[in-house]
Every structure is written in C-alpha cells, then in structure tokens.
Amino acid sequence: MLCLSGSFSQGAVLAEEKTREDWKKLGNNFELLKKDRTSRARLGRLATPHVVIETPVFMPVGTQGTVKALAPDRLREQLRVPIFLCNSYHLHLRPGEEVVQAAGGLHRFISWDGALLTDSGGFQVFSLAQLVKVDDKGVQFRSHLDGSVHNLTPKEAIRIQNSLGADIIMILDQCVGFPASIFEQQEAVRRTVIWAKESKEVFDSPSQQLFAIVQGGMEEELRINCAREMVRIGFDGYALGGLSVGEPKPLMYRIIEATEPFLPVDKPRYLMGVGSPESIIEAVKRGVDMFDCVLPTRNARNGSLLTRRGKINIDRKQFSQDFRPLDPDCRCYTCQNFSRAYLRHLFKAGEILAAELATIHNLFFMVELMENIRQALREEVFEQFSQEFLSGYQEG
Amino acid sequence: MLCLSGSFSQGAVLAEEKTREDWKKLGNNFELLKKDRTSRARLGRLATPHVVIETPVFMPVGTQGTVKALAPDRLREQLRVPIFLCNSYHLHLRPGEEVVQAAGGLHRFISWDGALLTDSGGFQVFSLAQLVKVDDKGVQFRSHLDGSVHNLTPKEAIRIQNSLGADIIMILDQCVGFPASIFEQQEAVRRTVIWAKESKEVFDSPSQQLFAIVQGGMEEELRINCAREMVRIGFDGYALGGLSVGEPKPLMYRIIEATEPFLPVDKPRYLMGVGSPESIIEAVKRGVDMFDCVLPTRNARNGSLLTRRGKINIDRKQFSQDFRPLDPDCRCYTCQNFSRAYLRHLFKAGEILAAELATIHNLFFMVELMENIRQALREEVFEQFSQEFLSGYQEG
Predict the structure, then answer these.
(1) Distance between CA atoms of residues B75 and B72, nearest Å
(2) Is B263 a residue whose pLDDT tops 60?
(3) What percent of chain B has pLDDT over 90?
(4) Catalytic annotation on B119?
(5) Both A317 and A226 in a single domain?
(6) What percent of chain B lies above the pLDDT cut of 70?
(7) Whether residue A282 is found in the same domain as residue A312
(8) B6 pLDDT band (50/70/90 cuts)?
(9) B241 plus B180 within the same structural domain
C-alpha cells in the first residue's frame, strides 16, 4: 500500500504500514494526548495502517467510493482530509466487494492513500433499502437499485468489509428511528449485542480495526447497558449509533453524556451521522473523538454554504452582483479564486463546477473547524474557543 | 489583469499585457513560424493580451463561463490549456454581460488568466433559440431559458463581447444548416458581409482582436467571394463558419481547400466547431490554425473516451474488472491514478467525479494531439506523423 507524502502534516502524520500485531505491541491504536479541564473533551491520536489521525476528527462521507464531486488529490492536498467513510451497503451492491478486492482493495480502487472507514451497511438497510425480515441471525432486504433480495448477517458484514479493506470497519447493528417504543429499543440493543459477539468472533483481519456500535435509542439505561456489553466484548473503538435520527439536540447531548462514562478512555469514540458545527462542538465537550456526516457535502451541492456566521444560500438574488468571496477570511481554493456572484451563476446555470467549488469550501470549513478545536485543546482554551465560535455561529 | 505563471510553458508563453496599439507596432498578432512542405499546414504563434498561443491549437468550450466539470486550476496547471471559448449568447442571457463587466471582465469573473475567445451568439441564435425574425439589421429571437424576446444586431454583438472582455471576439454571422438552397446560402453570405462591415466600424477595443466568419455553405464560389469580402474589410483573424453542420467530411475538406488560398497567410484561420482528431489533422493539412468543439468534453460526460486507437465507451461490461488505466501510455491525472473499472463504476453510480475524470482525460488527449502536431511541424515530419496517427486511430 502507498504511504503518504507530507501533505497530511496538519491533519495526520505519516504512519508506516502496521499489522494488527504491531498495534498490539504498541499497546493500543489510540493515544490520549490531553484532557480538557472544563469539559470531557479530549485531544488524541488514532493510528491506522495508512495515517495517524489527530482527534477530534471529522470524516467526510464518500458513499459509493468517492466524496461526491471531489477527486482524491483535492481531498488530500488542498483539504488535508486524513480519513473518509465509504458505505459497505452501496459498494456491496455496486460494483461488488469482489471487484474492489480484485482491484487490490478499496484504497487502490479509489486511489486514496489516507485512511478509510466503512460502515457495516446496517444503517442503510434500515433506512434506504426495503426491509424484508429481521431476526437474530441478520437482515433480509431488497436492494434500492434493482429490488433484488440480499441477506446481511454480522458475519457477512465483516466478510464484505474485509474484502473492501478499509482501515476501520463497523459491526452490523440494528438502528431504530425516533420515536420508537421501549420494546423496539430493547430488542435493537439485545440483537446488536448478539451481532457484536458474532462479529468479534469472526473478525480476524490483521490490518483492520473493528469498532462496536452502541444502540439504545433515547433511553439512558439501555445505552449504558449496551455500552457495558460492548466494552465487555472488547473493540478497537466505540461508536454511538441511532442518534441524530430526528430527536431534539438536547436529548442527543443527554444520551452522549450518560453513555460516555461507560466507554474506555483509551479507545476512540465515534458519534455516527453528526454533523453540524454546533453539534460537533457540543459532542466534543462530551468526550467524542470522531464524526461523520453527509451534510457538509450534500448541502454544498444544494448551494448551502458554511461560514463563521452560519449557513448562507448562494442562489439568493442578493448575491447576483456580490463580488466578494464567500468568506473573505477563508483560505480555501474556492474563496481564494471565486466570488459569490460567480458561484451563484454556476448554481443557476446548473454547472457541475458549482458542486465541486461548494464542496471544497464546506469541507475546508469542517477541516479547519476541527483543527481549531484541536488547537484550542492543545492550548487549553477549548471552553473559550467553543463559546466564541457558538456565539458567532447561527445554526440554520 | 493577471499574468501567467510558468505553467503555460508548453502550450503558450508568457505575454505582458499589450494594447491593440502595441500589437500594431509589432506589426501583427500572428507570427507564421513554419510552413509544411508537403501540405498547407502551418506552425504559428498567436499573441493575445494574456498569453501567446502556439498554433495549431484546440480550444475547449466553456459555454456558460466554465469548461464543464473542470475548475480552472486543472485546466491551466494539469492540462496546460492556453485558451478556451465562452458563448456570448449564454452569458448575455445569464448572468448578463453587465454582471460580468461589473466583476472586472470575464477573466476575473471566472478566475482564468489564460486567453479567452467569445463567439458572437450567431450560431446559438440559429440553432438553440427560437428564431423570431432575421433581416439585414439583425436577428430577433426567443431565449431558450424563459422565452423572452431579444434583438441581436452586429453592433449589439460587439457591445456584448466588449463588455465580456475576451481576448478574441467574433462578428455576428448568419449560419445556414446542411443542406440549404443556393438562395439561402447566397443570402447568408450577403447578410454576413453587411454585418461584418458594421462590426468592423463599431469595433474599438484596444485589448481585443476581432475575427471575421466566412460563410457560403457548401458552394466553393460563395465561400471564395465571402473570404475576399472579409479580407477586404480586414480582420485580426478569419474563421470558417457553417461547416461541420452535418455535411460529409470530404465535402468539408473540399470547402476548406477551396477557401484557404484566399485568406491572408499572416493571419490565423479558425475552423469553428471542429472537432474530432481525424478532422483536425485533415484541416491542419489544409492550412487551419485554430479549432473549437464541444465533443471532447460532452463525450467525456457521456463516458465516451479518447484513446490512440479511437473512442471507447467506458460503461461497457467488459471494463467491470479491467484494472488497467484507460490508456497505459497516457500521462493525465486520470490515467495515472484510476482504472477503467473504477471509471466505469463512477459512471454507473452516477458520480459527478466521473464527469471530471473523463473530461480531464479527453482534454489531455486533445492538448497532447495538438502538441504532437506542432512538434511534427517543427521537426518537419508532419506528413509521417499524420499518416501514423490516422492509421492507428479509428474514428467511431
């Protein structure tokens, strides 16, 4: 596999390829560098076979094997993104993990020398596909592409993700929506724990890390029980799933707060599907290290752009003769070269370039936000930083 | 205006900003460097306020103010494109030349420091818009966007193109399709000559060059008469319009052959809307210096990719596990980093990145073809080069 050039220096440092045994010798995949004194926030370092990633980190989503509208050279060289997420569900259906494996693995197939994370497909099966049957053995679903019927078991999810070859892979979990009955939430936890055990048993990939997913809906007790079970089984990292599914934000924050003390301090914590700058800061405060969300890239393609004061919608008439950059202080390629008026024109004209330039800007914003969070933690001014950021930023 | 970095070195060399008066002092905008001994092919240099362009040159099309799916840094740094074409018709309707002018001109609006050419809008009015009325004064048409009625006169076409501020601008012409009656073709020539005179009279832009367009359908005598009239009026360059409109290729070549002797040797000749590698080589043989065509970029977005052996359609099943680059000898970003299987996957998955990577490849192919043509002319082996190229390339 390829190693990295110096271009990751701000987001991650060069790592030689290490096997799982090497990591074991090192004692851990995660190093806790600093704990904030006024919150549960942590500064850390997550080692993967491709790069060492500084945390807290935001992972863009590259659903089908590319971050939408962005080539990997921009992602790496211009945006300094150390890791992004691909979807096993999508890649399994198209082009199929056997194609990716024959190409030499996902990194080589998509030409990416940073780290990759694949999710298990659980979330897509319960949201995007048409569910046929769920039982303790696994899930049967119809493909959203052609209606064909597929079985996904915990073992199969691991096999698919082994074939894809991402640095970090996820157990199959059962995600319930919001609101859901206590019974549904209990069942999802019970099943997810069974699946976690099976996943751990079959997992045997020297160059990958396996993360658990904690479920439990909006019930603190269920979350705590699920976290305890997952820690008992033992994983390389712990994700919080089934959040950011429509619940009020204060409720999500409360669930994170309740669960976090039951997760090991020496392992990374990953809040799935989050998110917005505000939610990320609030979750970092509560001890979360990793995030992923489609919104910065999806919003970009819809012309909704992130600035320090909040989102702006670039297709508004007021920008038609506004020749300033989106954000005059932003150092991204888009802001350094193009005006709001030109971006608006590209969106109005339906030009593909609109999607690329907007995606560059929104991801640059997220990368810089995470750099600023880490810098504030390093300098022990995180409380001040987060107050200042949140007072200037209007969530839209 | 911005000057160029060294990145244009292969396609063009750095030019200080010069006014029309400076060019006049230099004697001409075009320098003929070499004439081929076995054909009418020419090696030349076309000076513009932004760059000096080596000819023969292919100009990609950037209809609405961007080459589709490509940001200007790639176009300049990775593809070494010295000039591309924008459409006055499209930019007049959206965002409007007043917006572009307020931005500081087209170069600044779109962040492009190479050269630009705008066409007059004539071709779009006769092909894309709904024609209301044509007379000797000009054209009345309905916008293809909203049906609004607009008038385009020779003077208005110059005014719009002055406001846009491209390096090279075109007179308004009347284009007839194929086939067309002798009467239609005669009328189009008569009117285009009237319009050319009016265009020349009102043209007064120190930093722009004005090119004539020779019409005359498929009638050699009409073409020759039109060329003579245009040369009598006097322009900075001479385009052949109304070709590549559905006629057989041998007919087009015959028209070029018939017209070319009546064009001044010390001015650039531009064949509009061409084209394919084969047609470009045949037209270079017949004394043409400049080309533009949407096909390399439009085909790219449809998955039709240029190789030395001809076009291939990347979405074919046979490429699903073909892990070779599109063209193993190609040095473009796409071929250096991605396989046919990955490109096929991106097309099948409808990813925006497919359009970008395919466009990079097809334009790189065209740029390299033109570099090879110029190199062959420089080394006096053009006849041999064109034979070798055409025997290996199957037009599809």
Answers:
(1) 5
(2) yes
(3) 89
(4) yes
(5) no
(6) 93
(7) no
(8) very low
(9) yes
Instruction: Please judge whether B345 and A99 are an interchain contact, meaning their C-beta atoms are less than 8 angstroms apart.
Output: yes
* Domain boundary, last residue among B272, B293, B314: B293
pLDDT value of residue A5: 31
Chain B partners of A65 at a C-beta cutoff of 8 Å?
342, 345-346, 349, 351
Looking at beta carbons, which residues of chain A come within 8 Å of B349? Answer: 64-65, 90, 94
List the domain range (segments joined by +) for residue B288. 55-293
Decide if B349 and A64 are in contact by the 8 Å CB cutoff. yes
Give the pLDDT of residue A23. Answer: 55
C-alpha–C-alpha distance, residues A378 and A287, integer Å: 15
Which stretches in chain A have pLDDT values below 50? 1-17
- Give residue B12's pLDDT: 38
The continuous run of DSSP H or E covering A84 comes out as strand A83-87
Residue B182's φ and ψ, nearest 5 degrees, are -55, -40
ipTM of this complex prediction, to 2 decimal places: 0.94
Residue B284's H or E segment, with its range, is: helix B277-285
**Do residues A227 and A346 share a domain?**
no
Identify whether B34 is part of a domain. Answer: no
Q: Where are the beta strands (DSSP E) in B285-352?
A: 290-292, 304-307, 310-313
How much is the pLDDT for B5? 31
CA distance A140 to chain B (A): 23
A263-267, B16-20, B184-188, B284-288: which range is least confident on average? Answer: B16-20
Q: How far apart are CA A54 and CA A370, in angstroms?
A: 9
Question: Is residue A387 domain-resident?
Answer: no
Residue A57: its H or E element: strand A57-59
Of A243, A273, A293, the domain-final residue? A293
What local confidence, expressed as pLDDT, does residue A3 receive? 28
The verdict on a CB contact (< 8 Å) between A345 and B64 is: yes
Contact A100, A64 (CB under 8 A): no
Residue A36 annotated in active site: no
For chain B, how many structural domains are there in total? Answer: 2
Please tell me if residue A339 touches chain B, with a CB cutoff of 8 Å.
yes
Same domain, A87 and A146: yes
A353·B70 Cβ contact <8 A: yes
Q: What is the DSSP letter of B294?
A: S
Q: Which residue has the higher pLDDT, A269 or B21?
A: A269
What element of type H or E holds B150? strand B149-152
Those residues with Cβ within 8 angstroms of residue B221's Cβ, 6 or more apart along the chain or in another chain = none
B88-112 residue pLDDT tens: 999 999 999 999 999 999 999 999 9
Q: Tens digit of pLDDT for each residue in B137-178?
A: 999 999 999 999 999 999 999 999 999 999 999 999 999 999
CATH number for the domain including A231? 3.20.20.105
Contact partners, residue A334, CB within 8 Å, separation at least 6: A325, A326, A343, A357, A358, A360, A361, A364
Q: Are residues A250 and A349 in the same domain?
A: no
Q: What DSSP state is assigned to residue A107?
A: H
Q: Strands of B57-59's sheet, edge to edge?
A: B57-59, B290-292, B269-271, B237-240, B209-214, B168-170, B115-119, B83-87
Asked if residue A9 belongs to a domain, the reply is no
**Would you say residue B32 lies in a domain?**
no
- Has residue B333 got a pLDDT over 50? yes
B66 touches A: beta carbon within 8 Å: yes
Tell me, yes or no, whether A233 and A319 share the same domain.
no
Show the tokens assigned to A7: 């271009």
Mean pLDDT, chain A, rounded, equals 93
Q: What is the DSSP annotation of B254-271? A: HHHHHHGGGS-TTS-EEE
Domain co-membership, A353 together with A232: no
How far is it, in rounded angstroms, from Cα A157 to Cα A136?
14
The model carries a pTM of 0.94
